[in-house]
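User: Predict the structure for this protein chain, please.
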Amino acid sequence: MTNQEIIDKLLKGEMKLYQVDSEVSAKQATDIRREFLEQKYDIKLDNISNYTLDMERASARNIENSIGVLQLPMGIAGPLKINGEYCQREVFVPLATSEGALVASINRGASTITASGGANARVVSDIMTRAPAIKCDGVNDALKIKQWFIDNFDELKEVAESTTSHGKLIKIDPILIVGSYVYPRFVFSTGDSMGMNMVTIASEKILEKLAHDTTATHLALSGNVCVDKKPAAINIVEGRGKSVIADILIPKEIVAKKLKTEVDTIVEVNTAKNLIGSAASGSMAFNAHYANMVAAIFLATGQDAAHVVEGSLGITTAENRNGDLYFSVNLPDLPVATVGGGTSLEVAHEGLEILGVAGSGKAREFAEIVASTVLAGELSLVGAIAAGHLARAHQQHGRG
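Assistant: Here is the predicted structure, written as structure tokens:
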């Protein structure tokens, strides 16, 4: 069939969008679906059609019913000096966003941090979780199933790890019981992959053994105790993905010069806004805007954008230490990767190359960079609020 013949079938409802892939190449199928939309709605999609991405590879790994590519402006902030365990250098951070003033703000924070000697960043935990929902006859059986997981851990570990060369089952904890339902939280290490697919496959293998050895019924591979792509207290306490902390001590002279305010003012703004204000509203995120930095760097490097909701969790602290400003951020739930998923897309790979973290063996270094970038953006925004510059900055950058 010609392209137009396929489009005509789509317009008449005689063919479904996904069926186009079985008739033509992924690139041609992409063009056909886009032209179908143009004809159906009498619109032009010239910009969506303009891309350099390898659609054959993307369609095999990353997208279904493709019609083209989304483009976002990408900026750069830096240099940002980092004194991490894995990252010990200055970096320039690629940031994809449509929010005016964001890159400028992060850049100011990076300048302040670099002038103060650099951000201290550490990965304190590195795990990925999956927690299925299991149905039992009642509480007595539920307790037996909980004990089954405890008693058979070594064998379950072997079963899980038979599915992957990189993943390791660290523990099954907690094992929650609610009525007749059991929620075991499988905790894995996953190397440089973000690991959700890895732990899902490994967890499924464990559940096959559960079905063979017991009368319990596995209802859902994810029972929402994981907790994936949702804000949750368990992830704040137990951690998920990379748990990272970044801090810095900024001399009062640099606070005055770079942030145009005073140490005590920043401390009070942080207390009133990020701590008390967040507590009063019932927020799980005791910070100003972690999500801004996490989203911008995620989009620039091919991370799963839905994990921004987890990356937005965390607490900012600020203290006056003998006249200087101690400032810190903690991100207990930062799922990131340098291999797999969207990191293989060409633009995302280039973003990781800018940071020097593309490929294997770089995930923890990347996590330290993300946390340091969050520190820069958080410091700049709290400083701008303290100095009364927030509205002026958005106005100056044309964002009324």
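The two ends are 51 Å apart (CA to CA).
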